[in-house]
Amino acid sequence: GSSLLTGPEGLMAKERENLKRLKCLRRYRQRYGVEALLHRQLKERRMLATDGAAQQAHTTRSSQRCLAFVDDVRCSNPSLPMTRHCLAHICQDANQTLFRPCPGSEEVPCHKPVPVSLSEEPCCPLHLRLPPQMYVPEQALAVPEELEAAPTDLYLSAAELQPTESLPLEFSD
Q1: Where in the numbering of this chain does the KANL2-like probable zinc-finger domain appear (predicted)?
Q2: pTM across the whole model
Q3: Between the N and C ends of the chain, which has fewer C-beta atoms within 10 Å?
Q4: Which burial class, exposed, middle or buried, applies to 140 when counting CB atoms under 10 A from its CB (0-12, 13-18, 19+)?
Q5: Rounded distance, CA 77 to CA 113, Å?
Q6: Where are the alpha helices (DSSP H) in the chain?
C-alpha cells in the first residue's frame, strides 16, 4: 500500500490530507536525535544487566547439589529447580508437596518418590494397580456339525478357476 501513496499526483486534497496523517501516525512512536541515542543506550544497559543476571543465576543454579546425605556422604546429584534436594531424595524435604513416597506392596516395600497426581494413592509404575478388566471377550461361536462335515467337492480348485480361453472384453453402457 505504501507504493500507491508515494506520489501526490492524481490525489485529491482530502486524499493528500489522509496521506499526511498516515505518515504522521507511522512516525508517532519513533525517537529521533538525542532521545533515540539515550533510548538505545538504555536498551543496551538493560540487555547487559539481564544477560549477566541470567548467566549468574544459571551458574549458581547448576552448581547447587542435593543436600541429602547417604552413609555420611553428600549426594552428588543436582537438585531439582526451586528445591534443595534431587529427585531421589525429594521426599526428605518436609516443606515440599509435589512428591510422595510410593507405598509399594506388602511383599515389596518401595519408597521411590512419585509425583502427586489426581489419584488418592500415587504409585510408581511397578506398583500401579490397574482397574478391573471391563471388556469380557465373547466365547467362540459354536459351528454346527453338519457345516463342519461339508463335502469338499463343492469347492473349485485353483486350476478350475483359471479361464481356458481368452474372450474379448465388451463394454456396454
Answers
A1: 72-127
A2: 0.40
A3: C
A4: exposed
A5: 15
A6: 13-26, 34-63, 145-148, 158-161
